[in-house]
Specification:
The structure is a single chain. The chain is of the alpha+beta class. It has a single domain (4-192), classed as 3-Layer(aba) Sandwich (ECO RV Endonuclease, Chain A), CATH 3.40.600. Helix content is 40%, strand content 23%. It has a six-stranded mixed sheet. The protein has a three-stranded antiparallel sheet with strand order 6-10-9. β7 (120-126) and β8 form a beta hairpin. α2 (12-32) runs antiparallel to α3 (43-59). The longest helix is centred in the N-terminal third of the chain and has 21 residues, at 12-32. It is globular and about 60 Å long.
């Protein structure tokens, strides 16, 4: 069965909306999660919600399952019957995308030994002042690259003695995935706007309500 999430990339009107709205919404997410000029870790959750909201807007809330058990660390949403993992990366390159977050080096090794692709990936490449994009990488494309290069070259583990944050897709693997003929791309110019945004305003407004 064809992946329904690829319909995001075939709807010309929605593609244009994504190109203009996504940078603005991600900019708001950064402002929401910034403290003293530094972006906090919570920005990841806000970005994920923005993409989930896009899926709800396109496909309807009834067709999207977002209450995913914690035992499914890779899956962020299920659209119809398709498990989807939402990933974001900042910069021109394709390094540093986590497959699993864990501070346990042993768990990261076990994950690599047992891993095989099974989710579609919606990857957002944020590149402020330059070109990035929204990518759909189906599980079929991931399996092809995984089988071709092997798990050692597909998954990068943290260096011993460092503060481990989890297992990553290697730059080599992810670069191959976004170039796959099975993947889809929306190129986006990441331009910041003069956003007059107060992260406390909505909460103050709630306090003001009678």
């Amino acid at each position: 069965m064809p992946s329904r999430s690829t319909e995001l990339f075939d709807d010309e009107k929605l593609v244009n909306r994504i190109k203009t709205r996504l940078p603005h919404l991600f900019q708001l997410a950064e402002l929401e999660s910034s403290r003293a000029g530094k972006i906090g870790m919570e920005v990841g959750s806000l970005r994920e919600r923005i993409i989930v909201a896009l899926l709800i807007y396109k496909f309807g809330e009834a067709n999207l399952e977002i209450e995913i058990p914690i035992t499914e660390p890779e899956v962020d949403a299920i659209l119809f019957s398709e498990p989807i993992s939402i990933k974001t990366i900042t910069g021109k390159g394709f390094g540093g995308v986590k497959l699993i977050w864990t501070v346990d080096a042993k768990k990261a090794r076990e994950f690599r030994e047992n891993y095989y692709p099974r989710c579609s990936i919606l990857l957002i490449q944020i590149n402020w002042g330059g070109i990035g994009g929204l990518y759909h990488i189906p599980s079929e494309a991931q399996k092809k690259v995984f089988d071709r290069i092997g798990r050692e070259r597909y998954i990068k583990l943290p260096k011993p003695g460092t503060n481990p944050r989890g297992a990553e897709i290697t730059n080599e693997a992810l670069s191959s995935l976004v170039k796959s003929e099975l993947s889809k791309t929306i190129k986006i110019f990441w331009k910041k706007t003069n956003a007059d945004y107060d992260p406390y305003k909505r909460w103050v407004d709630y306090w003001r309500e009678d």
